[in-house]
Write a structure and sequence with these properties.
This protein has one domain. 77% of the residues lie in helices and 0% in strands. The chain is built from 4 helices and no strands. The chain starts with a helix and ends with a helix.
Length: 168
């Protein structure tokens, strides 16, 4: 099986999940905006802030980031330095991209592993948030899942860059 066929197979299986996770993140942005508006309004006009709103905003923000990184990679929305590499031949560009993707996969794999390990520690230790006493592990598991999806997209891009190296 060629690199492109493998990449296309992974795309068909995983990209729909990434799009769903991204849309969940969009809904969370709306929820976070609503929570912030209600909290600020309640605090300013009624002297009745929402207890734990700052904490909930922190958790939602982390989930929003991790729900969007995979989709952003699909869209090639991350910052890339192409001024020099774009002048290379397609094969040389593929080599550089392959190296960058391989390093990125390693970093994201480490991040995913450590998020999952931290989730396990917080679950075993019954760690909760300071104000609302929410368990921390579900948020860490969601972050690890988002990181895993990002790593899969990087893997697909790595396979495509290997195809460039092959000159196909």
């Amino acid at each position: 099986m060629t690199f492109i066929k493998t990449a296309q197979l992974v795309e068909r299986m995983v990209y729909p999940i990434i799009r769903i996770v991204y849309k969940i993140g969009l809904v969370m942005i709306m929820g976070m905006m609503f929570l912030t508006v209600v909290d600020v309004t309640g605090r300013k006009f009624f002297d009745a802030p929402i207890t734990g709103s700052y904490e909930l905003t922190e958790f939602m923000l982390a989930l929003i980031v991790f729900s969007a990184v995979g989709y952003t990679q699909i869209q090639k929305g991350h910052i890339a330095m192409e001024a020099l590499v774009s002048r290379f031949s397609l094969k040389a560009q593929g080599v550089v991209e392959s190296i960058v993707y391989l390093i990125s996969i390693g970093l994201v794999a480490t991040l995913t592993w450590q998020l999952a390990a931290h989730a396990k520690r917080t679950w075993i230790g019954n760690q909760v948030s300071g104000v609302l006493n929410l368990p921390l592990y579900p948020f860490l598991i969601a972050a690890a899942f988002g990181s895993l999806l990002y790593g899969i997209v990087l893997f697909v891009d790595f396979l495509i860059s290997l195809e460039k190296v092959r000159g196909k």
